[in-house]
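Reply to dn_fold:

You asked what the input looked like. This is it:
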Amino acid sequence: MSRLLIDPFKREESMWFSTDTQGREEAIIELFRATFTASEGAEEGSLIGNLVQNLLASTAAQDRFAFMAEDDGAINAGIFFSRLTYEQDERAVFVLAPVAVATDQQGKGIGQRLLNQGLATLRSAGVDIAMTYGDPGYYTKVGFRPISEADAPAPFKLSRPEGWLALSLTDRAMTPLKGPSRCVEALNDPVFW
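and this is what came back:
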């Protein structure tokens, strides 16, 4: 699959959306670490900070999309999509994880705008399906719908199967994904599932 390169910065209202992570890795990692520490505690902050570090350092460019939102040079939101491979299915599938919006920026719609930008880019890049594992109340606002593990097996047993969500990025309805799934190495740990 070829990767669509969007302009490094796209202006939307007062927010800049960027796909550029080069030289900004520490700021991106710190955004995720601080956001998850504030909401879930230091242990979760460290876990997610390490996940982001591994996604940035060890996931091949064709297997990862990263999107950041910034204002006045400060990164205040970020999302990652990484490849999810179904062994008997030719469709391109990417899983959304993790997502962070700086604590003082939450509730302003930044996360949803960033998600919509990311999904539009995946759609343009020829990705067929986006998956996520999170709060259905939040992710259904941008089009994700609950899906069963029978229709899309997760790489590990899900501790909260009600949070397994999918979104078709094509004009075709979502149909079951075939075969066992495999995620990128950074997510290849049951603690994330």
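The first strand starts at residue 9 and ends at 12.
Hope that clears it up.
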